[in-house]
Write a structure and sequence with these properties.
alpha+beta, 6-stranded antiparallel beta sheet, 4-stranded antiparallel beta sheet, about 40% helix, elongated
Length: about 280
């Protein structure tokens, strides 16, 4: 009861899955991924087992097609299921059961799979695939572009309610629960717009948390605001940038202003120093 994409980025090796549906909490139950292993979309009378079990089999070395085939063979309701896998090498496997509610179908391309059911028309899956394939930029942006194209082509015939986006790294040595992007919209009148906003926020926080020496404080503040970060997080971006560039005086002045406005910030900033997130001397003692 949804439409989704699974994909592997050919340049970064990142793996991702994106989904939208007129079904509550779609992102929570349909989208699965593990670093350096694969990504899964499981939908249509959703059986969540295809997510973690499929990843377990791919982690053990099974290609996407073998992992999916094994689970389908064990599922008596496979003809109402719709599932797609991409593994760490970009191999795609997909299944659209004969009893999925129309319109239903799937399209597979180089290192991506597009699928959907309960769609306004057969053109929705084609638009989903074409939107992804034609897009440029990071995997996150391409996945979002595919969802937008599918919605523009008619989407789920019931309307829209929920969406999800998960992207993981290509590094199989990464902890299995680490995700570069993990955002979802459980209930919203415009889930794709909200999903894009959350993805932008996620990128903004990731950038703020990775500020290193040499970063321009003004640029970091502008980027944080553009991403939609709260004002205290924008200030923190400036503090990090100044401090990591060795300008402790400017960093300390921003900290002092924040503490003057809210004294409870003082122990928070002190803890940042203790943990090495800020150099000694930024927080007044």
């Amino acid at each position: 009861m949804t439409y989704s994409l699974v994909a592997r980025d050919p340049e970064s090796g990142e793996l991702g899955v994106a989904v939208q549906s007129c079904a509550f909490r779609t992102g929570a139950v349909c989208a699965w991924a593990e670093p350096g292993v694969g990504a899964v979309a499981t939908q249509s009378f959703t059986e969540q087992r295809y997510g973690p079990e499929g990843l377990t089999r791919m982690r053990a070395g099974a290609p996407a097609s073998e992992a999916l085939a094994g689970l389908l063979a064990e599922d008596e309701l496979r003809e109402v299921r719709q599932v797609a896998y991409v593994d760490a090498t970009g191999r795609i496997a997909g299944h659209t059961g004969a009893d999925c509610i129309p319109h239903a179908g799937d399209v597979r391309g180089p290192a991506y799979g597009a699928q959907g059911n309960m769609l306004r028309s057969p053109e929705v899956v084609a638009a989903l695939a074409e939107g992804y394939a034609a897009a440029t930029g990071p995997l996150v942006e391409r996945l979002l572009a595919g969802l937008d194209a599918a919605e523009a082509a008619g989407g789920d015939f019931r309307g829209r309610q929920a969406a999800g986006l998960v992207v993981v790294s290509a590094d199989a040595d990464e902890l299995p629960y680490r995700r570069l992007v993990d955002v979802r919209v459980d209930d919203h009148p415009e889930p794709l717009a909200e999903l894009r906003r959350l993805a932008r926020l996620n990128a903004g926080y990731a950038r703020r948390n990775q500020i290193a020496a040499g970063a321009d404080a003004a640029e970091e503040v502008e980027a944080a605001r553009a991403a939609g970060l709260a004002e205290h997080d924008v200030v923190l971006a400036a503090v990090f940038a100044h401090a990591r560039n060795g300008d402790l005086e400017r960093a300390a002045a921003l900290v002092a202003d924040a503490v003057a406005a809210e004294p409870l910030w003082e122990p928070a900033f002190a803890r940042y120093e203790t943990l090495g997130l800020l150099p000694p001397g930024v927080v007044a003692t």
